[in-house]
Design goal:
Blueprint (H helix, E strand, L loop, with lengths): L4 H13 L9 E2 L9 H16 L5 E2 L5 H5 L13 H17 L5 E5 L5 H12 L7 E5 L29 H10 L7 E5 L2 H4 L8 E6 L4 H11 L3 E9 L5 H13 L7 E2 L5 E4 L4
Parallel strand pairs: 3-4, 3-6, 4-5, 6-7
Antiparallel strand pairs: 1-2, 7-9, 8-9
Helix pairs in contact: 1-5, 4-5, 8-9
This protein binds S-adenosylmethionine.
């Protein structure tokens, strides 16, 4: 990697979005990011009601390892993305290859949380002075859906019970604005994927990054968006390590005879590139 201004900017952007320039701040003990054991969590449950009534907060100061942060293995307290540096590197490589090789279309992330990975896609476009490509930002902005009986693979999912995964639209917009990356080229698609991803504004895609964790969220995104992915475009799956998500990907690929090889990014993510026509 060269130390061109664009690379230096993108490197700094990745470290800022992941908060890895600074120590992990204390996490509210009730958050999954607090890294408490089951026993500690049970003990906390015992006293938390009384503490809340007394307006006293409990925080965990336990530090994750450098490696865990690099690899996006934690739910960070302050970072704007939880995907870690390796998956941001992959995202940069995909977007830059699409730009260099003139793969047609916009960029989308389905499942954005605090917005960090989508902000990064916009940052890559800005660093390369690429105008004219939109970044679609799709999320309920209120967390994950309850399991839909239509998708048995999601039957035991409890992601919808985690308030930490519900980040309001205004907060995500504000995060884009803080980085100086909010403009008319950023298009927000608030709502459930089953209702939003068929938006005709999504016409042609060069990079689609799916981060909806569940079988249904992943399959709905693949069904709606993969037909719009240009030849040579990239399909990135953040949660290939989660059984429901992996199953959705494998089912979709089998049903649509997608044979391009799936490459691992790190312990969690994977991607493939649609064959050029
Ligand atoms: C793990 S977080 C995404 C992490 C994010 N990409 C990052 O960079 O940190 C999953 C997100 O997917 C969203 N989500 C999952 N399923 C959804 C669905 N069916 N419709 C809308 N949003 C969904 C949740 O609201 C949540 O913000």
């Amino acid at each position: 990697m060269t130390s061109s201004p664009a690379n230096l900017y993108l490197d700094l952007l990745k470290k800022t979005l992941t908060f890895t320039l600074w120590p992990e701040p204390p996490a509210p003990a009730a958050d999954p990011g607090a890294r408490l054991s089951l026993l500690e969590r049970a003990a906390l449950g015992y006293v938390s009601g009384a503490l809340e009534r007394a307006e006293i907060g409990l925080f965990s100061t336990r530090q994750p390892s450098e490696e865990a942060r690099r690899e996006g293995r934690t739910w960070p307290a302050a970072a704007h993305t939880m995907i870690g540096l390796l998956r941001l590197d992959n995202l940069q490589a995909c977007v830059e290859t699409a730009l260099k090789e003139g793969v047609e279309g916009d960029l989308i992330e389905t499942g954005v949380w605090r917005g960090g990975a989508s902000i990064f896609m916009k940052g890559v476009l800005a660093a390369h002075e690429s105008t004219g490509r939109k970044v679609f930002v799709a999320d309920s902005f209120r967390g994950l859906p309850e399991p839909d009986p239509k998708y048995p693979a999601d039957r035991d999912s409890n992601f919808h019970t985690f308030p930490a995964l519900a980040v309001p639209l205004e907060e995500v917009k504000e995060n884009f604005r803080k980085y100086g990356l909010l403009d008319e080229g950023v298009v927000f698609l608030p709502g459930w994927f089953k209702d939003t991803l068929s938006d005709p504004a999504i016409n042609k895609l060069a990079v689609m990054r799916l981060d909806g964790d569940m079988y249904g969220s992943t399959l709905e995104a693949l069904n709606a968006l993969y037909p719009k992915l240009s030849p040579g475009g990239f399909c990135i799956i953040d949660d290939y390590t989660l059984p429901g998500c992996r199953r959705a990907v494998d089912d979709f690929r089998a049903a649509h005879a997608v044979t391009e090889g799936v490459h691992a990014i790190d312990w969690a993510g994977a991607f493939w590139r649609k064959a050029k026509a």
